[in-house]
Hints:
By secondary structure, this protein is an alpha+beta fold. It is built from three helices and five strands; from the N terminus they run E-H-H-E-E-E-E-H.
Amino acid sequence: MTHRFPLRVYYEDTDLAGIVYYANYLKFIERARTEFVRERGVDQRALKEAEGIIFAVRHIEADYLAPAKFDDELVVETSVEPSAGARIVMRQNVLRDGKVLFSAVVTIVPVSEAGQVARLPANIRLSLH
């Protein structure tokens, strides 16, 4: 199942040429992942308080395919790839009018307060797949 997160490019997201600054795509996909998790019933604040677990980006592969510009209406599509162990692999695409502008594969791991990879509770893992 693919999650869709709409957003608009604001002036603050762009460089002097009116093109989205490359690092802002990472912010866009982070927001989309947060909403993806929330819509699946995972309360990240409660997970931290009850289990001492937070999600951290372990690895990211990104391709910048075409520029987004000031005032564009974009959609971030997020889906979960098959994965094993403690990691969760997500594919995220940023689109404008159905055209992929940015594509990323993001590996997320649950981390304990001590900073070590933690075991994700089974109910949470099932919610995210």
